[in-house]
Amino acid sequence: MRQIIFVWITHCLAYIAHLLPADYSPALLFAAAAAITQATSMCLPMLALYGLGNMQAAWIPRHVSKASKFMVPITGAFLLILLYANYTLFEMYGFFIDPFVVNILTTPGGTAALGASDSVYLTIAAIVSAIVIGLYLSRFVPLDLLAHALLPRTAVVVATLLVIFLAQAAVYAVSEHKSYVPVLRFADRIPWYQTVTAKSFLADIGVERSREVMDYGNPSSGTKFHYPESVPELLPLDKRYNIVWLVAESWRWDMLDPEIMPETWAFAQRSQLFVNHYSTGNGTRMGVFGQFYGLNGSFWFPALRYQRVPVLVDTLQKSGYNIQAYTSASFTYPEFDKTVWVNVENDRLHSVDSGMGWERDRKNVERLIEFPKQSSTPFFSFMFFESTHANYQFPKENEVESDYLPDFDYLATDIESSIGLIKNRYINSSNHLDCQLGRVFDSLELQGLLRDTVVIVTGDHGEEFMENGRWGHNSTFSQQQVRVPFLLYVPGMKGTTHKAMSSHMDIPATLLSLLKPGHNSRVYSMGDNLLSPDFDREYAVISDWHGDALVTSDHKYSMSPKANSRRTALSTIDDKPMDQADMPAQIHLALSEYMAERQRFSRPPSATQASAGEQLALTALHAEPDKAVPPPALPSPSTDG
Questions:
Q1: How far apart are CA 572 and CA 554, in angstroms?
Q2: What element of type H or E holds 302?
Q3: How far is 250 from 483, CA to CA, in rounded Å?
Q4: What are the tens digits of pLDDT across the range 84-105?
Q5: In 348-462, where does DSSP find H-type helix?
C-alpha cells in the first residue's frame, strides 16, 4: 500500500508541477481536480493487483495471489517510467506517448529519428534505476498511516473522488463548448487526459457554442500547437491578385483527363499543372486543412481545439480582401467554421444543402460567378464542389460512360462485383464537375478577370475503386486515395507541367509568395513555394484520423494503425507491400526530417519567446480594421506580369 500511495502522490505532484508554469490562474481549481482524478486512474492497476493479492477467497489460487503482490511494485515502476517518458516527450516535441510514438520506437532505425544516441540510453538507464530505487525506499516511509486513516472512510473517499471527477469533467465539457482556452490548455498538458464533451446536451439547454478566434500570431500561447513559429512579415502585401480557389470532393488525379474533363484539361494547359501532387489527408478534414495551413493534416486536432486562424486567411482579411466562401456540403461538418473560416463572418459563408450534389454545385456556381461583379476591392472566393462525392450522381447529359450502375444502393449493391459500374458513375460525375469548373473559367475570361486573378483547382483527397482492396477513401494511403489534381493559374505565367512531387502543404507558401515575394514562409508552413526555381520536395506527409504516412519518390511508410490494419506499414510507391525489415534509407531520412518539422509546430514555447519586434508586428497585424495599414491599390496587369 505504501508503494501505491507513493506512486499516486508522485503522479499528483508531477501533474501539478507541469501545469503550474502555464499560470492560467482562472483554471487552477480545474487543474488540481484533473491532476487528482488522472493520478487516481493511473494507479487503478496497482490497486487492483493489491486487492487481488490480499483477497482471502478459496477460488483464488495461492500462486495468483503471490504473483499479484509481486506485480504491484513492478507496475508502479512501469507507471512512473511512463510518467517521466511522457513529460520528457512533451517538453521535446509537444505530444505524449501514442500509437505514433510506439510505431516509431518499434521501427528499425525509428529511435534515430528521435535523436537517440548512446548517451541517451545511458541516461534512460540511470533514470529507470533511480525510479526503481525510489520505489523500493518508499516501503520504509510510513505512508500507510494515511491509508489506515482513510480506509474506515472508504465510502467517503470514493464519493469525494467521484465528485471531483464529475466536477472537472463538467468544467471541461463546458470549456470545450465555449472555447475557454485556459482549461483546454491545462487538459492538453496532462498525459492521456480523458476528455468528456456534451455538445448536444449543452446546445439543447441553450448554451451557445463559441466561435472565439485564437490569434495565430501569439508565440507565447503555451499550447502544444505552436503556430506559427514567429510572426511572418507579410503586411502590407506587395501584390493584390484576386484569388479563386476551387476544391472538389473525392477528385483523384487521373480524372483530369482530356476525354473526361476537357474544360479543366484545357485550362490546365494555360496553368502550372502539377501531375505528382499529394493531398495532406485521405479524408476531407485533413485534405482541406493542409491546403490552408501548410501543415501536416494531423495538426487538424489542435487547430480545431484552439480555433486557430490560418495565416493565409487572416492575412487576406487584414489586407482588406472581400472574402466569400461557398460549399455544396457544410461549413459546420467538417468543422471548417471553427478552423479555416473561424475569423470570417457567417454572412460570408454560403452553403446549399438541398438537392443532389450536382444540383447544389450548379446553384453555388451561379453565386460564385456573380460575386466578382459586386466586389469593388480585391476578392478571395472559395468553393467546395460535391459532384464527385459518393454516390456519384449526375444529370443525363454527363454520361461519358453509358455502362454504369443506374441505382447505387449502398445496402443492396455488391460493391466488389459492381465496382466497374460504380467507377463509371464516378467518371460521369467528374464530367459534370468539369462542366461547372468550365463555367467558372469562362466567366473569369468574359469578365476580364484572368488578367489579375490567381486560380487554384484541386481535390480534397482521392477515391479508390478496389484497386488495392478498398472502395472510397479514409481507409488507407493508397495512391488512389491520396493523389489529386492540382493546377495553379497565375496571370502572365506560361502554362507548364511540373513532374516533381508536390503537396497541399505547399499551397499557402506559394500563394503568399505571389502576394509578398521574398518573405520567410517557413515560420508558418511545412511547405515551400512551388514556383521557386530551387523547389525540391523529398517527401510528402499524408494524415488520417489515426496517424501519418510518409511518401517518398519510391516508397511509403504508414504510421496509422487503421491504415495498417490490413497491410504492412511499408510499401512501394505503387502500394506493393514490403518487409519492414527492409526499410530503405529514403524513409529513415524522411523520418528524421519529419520529426524535426513536427517539433517546430508542436513544442510548447516559452513565455519569453516573442521578441519586441514580433510584438510590434502582432500589434500591426491584429489591429482593428479601421486602424490597419491601408491596402495598396490593385496593380495593373503589366505590373503583375
A1: 6
A2: helix 300-306
A3: 10
A4: 887 776 765 556 776 666 766 6
A5: 357-370, 415-446
